[in-house]
Design a protein that fits this description.
By secondary structure, the protein is of the alpha/beta class. The chain is built from six helices and five strands.
Length: 148
C-alpha cells in the first residue's frame, strides 16, 4: 500500500499518478490535498510519513512544486528515507542503494510522462542489500542518536 500526498502545486500530478496506480492495481491512500486550493505542504508530508510509521502503508509518494519541501519534512520522521528524484536512474538508485521508502517529486521540473516513468522505476526496483545494508544500519544508529 502506498500513501500519496501533494500540496496544491503538485495536485494535478498526484491525480495522474493515482490513475497510473489504479491501472496497475496498486493500492494507495490519498493523504491530500484534494484540490488546487492553497495548503501547507508540511501537513501532507506528515500524514504520509505517519502512514508509513504506523505500517498502514509500506511506501509513500509526495509531490510539491520542487519536491524539496516535502522531502525535508518527511525525513524528519524516524524510519523515513525520502528521496527527491528527477529521473528514473535516481529513482532506481534511491531504492537499490538507500532503500528509500518515500519518493518526492517536483511538479515544476518534470512532466506527467516523466513522473509516471519515475514512479514505475521506483516501485519496480528492489533494495540490493549487501554493503548497502551496512550503511542503512549506520543511518539507523544516527537516527537513534538524534531523533529522540
Amino acid at each position: 500500500m502506498i500513501a500519496i500526498g501533494s500540496d496544491h502545486g503538485g495536485y494535478k500530478l498526484k491525480e495522474e499518478i493515482k490513475k497510473y496506480l489504479e491501472e496497475k492495481d496498486i493500492k494507495y491512500v490519498d493523504c491530500g490535498s484534494f484540490s488546487e486550493e492553497r495548503v501547507d505542504y508540511p501537513y501532507i508530508a506528515k500524514a504520509v510519513a505517519e502512514k508509513i510509521q504506523t505500517k498502514e502503508c509500506n511506501e509513500g509518494i509526495l509531490i510539491c512544486r520542487s519536491g524539496i519541501g516535502m522531502s525535508i519534512v518527511a525525513n524528519k520522521f524516524k524510519g523515513i528515507r525520502c528521496a527527491k528524484c528527477d529521473n528514473e536512474e535516481e529513482a532506481k538508485f534511491s531504492r537499490m542503494h538507500n532503500n528509500s521508502n518515500v519518493l518526492a517529486l517536483g511538479a515544476d521540473y518534470i512532466n506527467m510522462s516523466e513522473a509516471i516513468c519515475i514512479v514505475r522505476a521506483w516501485i519496480a526496483t528492489e533494495f540490493q542489500g549487501g554493503r548497502h545494508e551496512e550503511r542503512l544500519k549506520i543511518i539507523e544508529e544516527i537516527e537513534k542518536e538524534n531523533m529522540k
